[in-house]
């Protein structure tokens, strides 16, 4: 149903080939991480969050090659790769590392070309292994900012969410990818089944319980997680969030809400909420719309999705349609009281806000950032970009 190519969605561009099947190949990881032209992006732990780093001088994503790192840091990465092979890493080590994949320098989607403006990046810099070639990319979370100062002083923190949108989509997408893995590693230190320490394996993309306690009767691990054949908690989590532009059958009105946390900004946006277990996307949209506004949506159209690394969400964008029958469209904020206000906006009014850069709403109301899924959904309704389906 989406009219977007996935590479157009902010945070959603596939900047590298993830080659996920190579993550568990410790020989590949050990050799690729010390390849002279392997590239590393950096994050630091700050106030219980993983904060990406950019170049202070260029304002682009900070990317360093292995050969440009000092001897101490090169040795640290080599030691990490040995411990990764031995399955003896600890999530509380001085660094966490995640193998992101290979940049295969495919035209406009090359993060190396986009971020570094480096015409020298070519296949001559590829690391090749069993028929798979490209420039390896790794994400590193430094627990101590001083460690990075030994490598470079040209860095700054990318703290404010709005600053992410000043980067190219390729840079922001790579940051999002690494950030979600590193957030997960940083916050999951113990096995949920038995409380034992966990070990990062497969180049930082899985967690393994290190308990070796065996049930003498069954001769299986006592830990219910380690004893299971397939265990989802060993893998990173992604939290699905439904978000919907709510309109009427005519498509001339849009229901937007003002979150209690955004009263001062006067930013009205689409209605959103986390999906519940064993709930369809469509049911989650209808539930969230009713819980937040009392409005009853009859038809749900799934439109697009967007990774949202704050911290580990996947936004599932929809358009919800309400029959104006004197009851279903009535707003009632008395359910979960998440919104400070909700109102039906005329499409004509929203069109001015979207299409006329000089227009200022008389109440100072603003819409979400243009690269956010919320803005794109509103824009689709306002500018009638939903030709693939009928309201």
UniProtKB/TrEMBL annotation:
Cofactors that this protein relies on: Mg(2+); Zn(2+)
Annotated GO CC locations: cytosol; peroxisome
UniProt cross-references to SUPFAM superfamilies, sorted A to Z: Nudix
Any one GO molecular function term: metal ion binding
Keyword match Aminoacyl-tRNA synthetase: no
Keywords: Hydrolase, Magnesium, Metal-binding, NAD
Catalytic activity: a 5'-end NAD(+)-phospho-ribonucleoside in mRNA + H2O = a 5'-end phospho-adenosine-phospho-ribonucleoside in mRNA + beta-nicotinamide D-ribonucleotide + 2 H(+)
Stretches assigned to the Nudix hydrolase domain: 236-371
A matching Pfam family: NUDIX
Biological process annotations from GO: NAD+ catabolic process; NADP+ catabolic process
UniProt keyword Secreted, yes or no: no
CDD domains tied to this protein: NUDIX_NADH_pyrophosphatase_Nudt13
EC number in record: 3.6.1.22
InterPro entries in alphabetical order: NAD-cap_RNA_hydrolase_NudC, NudC-like_C, NUDIX_hydrolase-like_dom_sf, NUDIX_hydrolase_CS, NUDIX_hydrolase_dom
Top class in the EC scheme: hydrolase
Family: Belongs to the Nudix hydrolase family. NudC subfamily.
Annotated protein name in UniProt: NAD(+) diphosphatase
Organism encoding this protein: Pachysolen tannophilus NRRL Y-2460
